[in-house]
């Protein structure tokens, strides 16, 4: 796969966080997420300290706050769902700004928002300081199942190809005077989606046959060797270890 493939989430840099091996950062983010999920929802101060830890990582990695905030738009479905829970929830009710809300629903909404937000920010920082191809290297080093790594590898390689194909189909429709204004145009959009699926499937078949002709037997060769020293592991694990200490104080 192309070694120079970059992603919009990645911010090139030379900070200490950028230089850490990918397997160290992957394990650190995973362990941090586990600690956050294990934290009781009533410990508000613990979540504030987790946010400060992530802010310190962003500062060390020189990731601008605006970059993180813009990428947090991916969390909007969780936010909308969380806001609905107190409205439709059962149990004891309380009035907030004239609205009757469920108390258990409010706790559930807070639990989802706090933990999901911290997890999303940690993932954004990982993506901002690690190239996508390098993340796959780290996954290989951590012995993630080979099939999962291959799926992610091909998704990374061909996502832009499929998006470009979709853009060309949209331009072709619009050049013929098509405008998707209401539900009457849904059949045409559905046919385009079907055509895109067939083209993608056929491309996958051709790629698979090409791989078989080159000796593919179900396993991809290692993309490269990325070793990590004890010092690098220690630096990367500062985040989850600090979070674990906060969790210990909160219990």
UniProtKB/TrEMBL annotation:
Which Pfam family would be a valid example here? CbiQ
Question: Where this protein primarily resides, as one coarse class?
Answer: membrane
Its membrane topology is listed as: Multi-pass membrane protein
Subcellular location as annotated: Cell membrane
Stretch forming the signal peptide: none
Q: Which domain of life is it from?
A: Bacteria
Q: Does the keyword NAD apply?
A: no
* Transmembrane helix recorded as keyword: yes
Looking at the UniProt entry, the stretches that span the membrane are 20-38, 44-61, 73-90, 110-130, 142-159, 230-249
Q: Which UniProt keywords apply?
A: Cell membrane, Membrane, Transmembrane, Transmembrane helix
Mind telling me which PANTHER family this protein's record contains? Answer: SLL0384 PROTEIN
- What's the protein name? Cobalt/nickel transport system permease protein
For this protein's source organism, the top of the classification is: Bacteria, Bacillati, Actinomycetota, Actinomycetes, Streptosporangiales
């Amino acid at each position: 796969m192309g070694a120079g493939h970059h992603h919009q989430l990645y911010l090139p840099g030379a900070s200490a966080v950028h230089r850490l091996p990918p397997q160290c950062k992957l394990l650190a983010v995973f362990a941090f997420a586990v600690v956050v999920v294990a934290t009781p929802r009533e410990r508000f101060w613990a979540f504030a300290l987790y946010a400060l830890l992530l802010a310190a990582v962003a500062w060390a990695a020189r990731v601008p706050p605006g970059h993180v905030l813009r990428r947090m738009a991916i969390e909007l479905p969780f936010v909308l769902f969380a806001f609905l829970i107190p409205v439709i929830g059962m149990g004891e009710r309380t009035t907030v700004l004239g609205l009757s809300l469920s108390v258990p629903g409010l706790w559930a909404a807070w639990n989802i928002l706090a933990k999901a937000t911290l997890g999303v920010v940690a993932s954004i920082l990982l993506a901002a300081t690690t190239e996508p191809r390098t993340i796959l290297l780290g996954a290989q080093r951590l012995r993630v199942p080979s099939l999962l790594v291959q799926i992610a590898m091909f998704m990374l390689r061909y996502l832009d190809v499929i998006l470009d194909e979709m853009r060309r189909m949209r331009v072709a429709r619009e050049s013929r005077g098509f405008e998707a204004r209401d539900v009457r145009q849904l059949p045409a959009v559905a046919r385009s989606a079907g055509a895109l699926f067939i083209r993608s499937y056929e491309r996958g078949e051709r790629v698979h046959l090409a791989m078989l002709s080159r000796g593919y037997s179900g396993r991809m060769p290692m993309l490269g060797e990325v070793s990590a020293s004890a010092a690098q592991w220690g630096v990367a694990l500062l985040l989850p270890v600090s979070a674990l200490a906060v969790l210990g104080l909160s219990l």
